[in-house]
Amino acid sequence: MTTTESVLPPFLALSREELISWLKEQGEPAYRARQIWSWIHQQRAASFDDMSNLPKQLRDKLKASFTLFQTEVLKHQKARDNTEKLLLRLRDGEEIECVLMRETSRRTICISTQVGCAMGCTFCASGLLGLNRNLTKAEILEQIYRLDRLLKTDERLTNIVVMGIGEPLANLKELLPALATVHAEEGMNLGVRRVTISTVGLPGKIEELAETGLSYNLAISLHAPNDALRTEIVPVNKNIGIDKLLAAADTYFERTGRRVSYEYILLGSINDRPVHAEQLTTLLRHRNAHVNLIPMNDVAELPFHSPSAPRTQEFAEMLSDAGINVTVRKRKGADIDAACGQLRLNEQKQKSVGSQIVTLKS
Ligand code: SAH
Questions:
Q1: Distance CA 21, CA 126 (A)
Q2: Where are the alpha helices (DSSP H) in 38-120?
Q3: Which atom number of ligand 1 is nearest to the Cα of residue 200?
Q4: At the top level of CATH, which class does the domain 72-332+341-350 belong to?
Q5: Mutate which of 109, 122, 163, 343 to test ligand 1's pocket (most atoms within 8 Å of Cβ)?
Q6: I need a labelling partner for 19 at 20 to 30 A (CA). Which of 30, 129, 170, 254 fits?
Q7: Per residue in 9-64, pLDDT tens?
Q8: What are the residue boundaries of the structural domains of the chain, listed by start?
Q9: What is the pTM of this model?
Q10: What CATH code would you report for 3-65?
Q11: β-pair partners for 72
């Protein structure tokens, strides 16, 4: 990348309408927008030069006016189960991660929405260093397109989970336009029902999402069945409370008709006892809900660990025996630090040469 290129605006920030008006300004016909969009969103072009049905002079103008990809791939890891992970460096030097997972015919990607996270969940690697900033629409889209370009010619992206670094509902302003591009018929034409947004559970924002009328799958990181414990491990709960959160989830279900999923990370000896399964059952029994149990991914700096597999199974059975819909999340890409925030944290650690990281342990 040359210096002039690196200061050009990102192409992915443009909406279709903005592209059409840019083309107009250049004296180009509007149908070029369809061709360019097809190259980017469907034909996996790696550069403007790939766009072989555009006149060379238009390709040159595009090159002189925009950068197609503004991030740099710092690391590309492949796990034994074919999970792939990218560590991307943004223009301002910040780093984010995104993941591609392969499971039977599903090709699911997991994307980030912020650099770091302000929520401070005690078991999560992403929030250990706090929040630096929101990602832009272009940076969110770029993760999607970079991962899509890792697929083989006959593979298609089938699902997006917004479960990477950051709190998606704290950045709806950039996330929703990015997803709108993905849903567009001339974009990737991937339906809203193929997208799952995972949130720590911000009631006002859940209602705002419901208001959009888009039926995204909503996954709420509940993680504890009573307020005292939830506030301990998910500190933002202090000002929210489980009742208010579940009420917002009910509104979401009423407006969208989508069953809400509740994520519940299993932390050995903390929230994995029979009494917790009972309390969780009481909360969810009369709701159209699904519980996704997540075995804790170890984070070196943190004292929590997943319970044993049999104990996890017992917890799941207690819920299902009580009539709750429950699954245990499969671990993907364990050998490449694929859980959210781990790779970035490890990178930051190496950079900080030990000074900052000591404080993480306290
Ligand atoms: N901020 C959003 C989305 C990002 S995290 C949210 O809270 O939902 C995606 C999911 O991974 C959340 O359920 C989160 O609690 C969980 N998670 C965080 N750290 C984890 C870890 N070390 N092991 C397993 N799951 C983790």
A1: 39
A2: 56-65
A3: 7
A4: alpha beta
A5: 163
A6: 170
A7: 999 999 999 999 999 999 999 999 999 999 999 999 999 999 999 999 999 999 99
A8: 3-65, 72-332+341-350
A9: 0.93
A10: 1.10.150.530
A11: 89
